[in-house]
Amino acid sequence: MADCIFCEIAAGRAPALLVFEDDQVVAFEDIEPRAPVHVLVVPRKHLADAREATQDGLLPRLFEAAHTVAADRGVAGSGYRLVFNVGADAGQAVDHAHLHVLGGRPLRWPPG
Ligand code: AMP
Ligand code: ZN
Asked: What is the CATH number of the domain that holds 78?
């Protein structure tokens, strides 16, 4: 999709620190990390949010990639948080579905 930064990253046309990729999924370091581990897992296909990714059947692939990333980054044992922000009240800033993988420190709950 034109002007979508995560489509550009997935296609290799915009820079990112990739940590995982397969035929349908790409994962890369968040540019503004909120925790020692902060990776975004996205579908290669442009889907606007988690709802569209659900309808497309891609959620299992995104979650499988997220667990792989967590293990690779050494937080499988200490724990990690998986987050989809959906829509304005959740603070979704990029309209291309992305699953946050956060870990490496204790994470407060509830979020702000
Ligand atoms: P959200 O608020 O759930 O939409 O999260 C969007 C996330 O994308 C934020 O954590 C941003 O720091 C991150 N982000 C935005 N642009 C980039 C980029 N070019 N590369 C990596 N992460 C990005
Ligand atoms: Zn996109």
From this structure: 3.30.428.10
Q: What tens digit of pLDDT does each residue of 14-50 get?
A: 999 999 999 999 999 999 999 999 999 999 999 999 9
Ligand 1 mean position to 31 CA, how many Å? 6
Evaluate: CB of 15 within 6 angstroms of ligand 1: no
User: Is 108 inside any structural domain?
Assistant: no
User: Among 73, 72, 43, which residue's Cα sits nearest to residue 59?
Assistant: 43
pLDDT band at 83 (very low <50, low <70, confident <90, very high): very high
Which domain does 62 fall in, by range? 5-103
Q: Number of folded domains in the chain?
A: 1
Q: Which of 5, 13, 30, 100 maximizes ligand 1 atoms within 8 Å of its Cβ, making it the mutation to test the pocket?
A: 30
pLDDT interval class at 2 (50, 70, 90)? confident
